[in-house]
Design goal:
about 140 residues; mainly alpha
């Protein structure tokens, strides 16, 4: 797949999300807070001194929410496509689950109950097979 076809915003948001998750980024943010705290006495803990950190953190937080959400949305779609492909190529899989992410919460809970029941049936079958093997 050609990564060069991704939009500028897609590439930018992916890079920012990757950078935001690195330890060095956390350390830089912590350092900024420490420097800001140290400068408090110099600026006599003024309203402007407080406004600088409040404005800066608000802007960064506001923008990061949208960038990270964009990245998470794309990652969720990509993961769903990969799971759909696995369902598609598995002979015993129920294809009705390929679009399960589009169901409402009530239907999702019903599907979950069905899957739990199915897993218990599979466990029971496996236990029966183990007993048969042990008896022979």
């Amino acid at each position: 797949m050609d990564k060069g076809k991704a939009s500028l915003f897609t590439r930018f948001s992916s890079q920012v999300a990757k950078l935001a998750g690195k330890p060095v980024t956390f350390m830089l943010a912590a350092l900024i807070i420490v420097v800001w705290g140290i400068t408090g006495p110099i600026f006599h803990y003024s309203d402007t001194w407080q406004l600088v950190i409040n404005t800066g953190t608000t802007i960064v937080t506001f923008l990061m929410v949208f960038l990270i959400q964009n990245t998470q949305n794309r990652d969720s779609v990509a993961l769903q496509l990969k799971l759909d492909e696995l369902i598609h190529v598995t002979k015993k899989a129920r294809n009705e689950l390929m679009e399960v992410e589009d169901l409402d919460e009530k239907d999702l809970l019903q599907k979950k109950e069905e899957m739990v029941e199915l897993s218990h049936e599979v466990e029971d079958e496996a236990d029966d097979e183990i007993e048969e093997i042990e008896e022979s």
